[in-house]
Tetratricopeptide repeat protein
Amino acid sequence: MSSAALFEEGEEFVDAEMFADALDSFQAAWDALPEPKADQEQAIQICAAISDCYFHLESWSACHDAMQNALRCGASVGNPFVRLRLGQSLYELGNEREAANWLVPVYLMEGRAPFEDDPKYLEFFRGKLAPPEGGWPEGW
C-alpha cells in the first residue's frame, strides 16, 4: 500500500476516534516513504498526524518527539498546530516554562479556538500573562 493510501486510512481512523489504529496507519505511511524520508513532501503531514495520535493516546513524550521530527522535516515553528501540540506535550511532561513559550503564540495568533476542547492549557498560561490595559478583548 502506498504512503498516501496508508495516510488516508489513518485519517479515516482519526475521524472514527480510533487513535491507536490511526497511529498504526500513520506509522506504516512513514515507513512506506522512500529515503531520505525527511525530504519527502508528505513527511511533515505524517509526523504531525503521528504526534496528534500520541496526544490523543496521552503518550506525551512520543507526542513531543513526533512533532520535533516534523520540525526536522521542515515544519514551520510558526504553524499554530505544531506549536499547540508541542506546548501541550511539554505541559504534560511538566516543563511549564517551555510549554508557555509554545502555547502563548498560538493564543495570540488564533485566540481561544484551539483551546476549546481542553481549556486547562488556556487557563495554565493565561494565568501567567498580564491582561492588556483595559482587560482582555471579548473572545480572548
Notes: The radius of gyration is 16 Å. Residues 96-110 form the longest helix (15 residues).
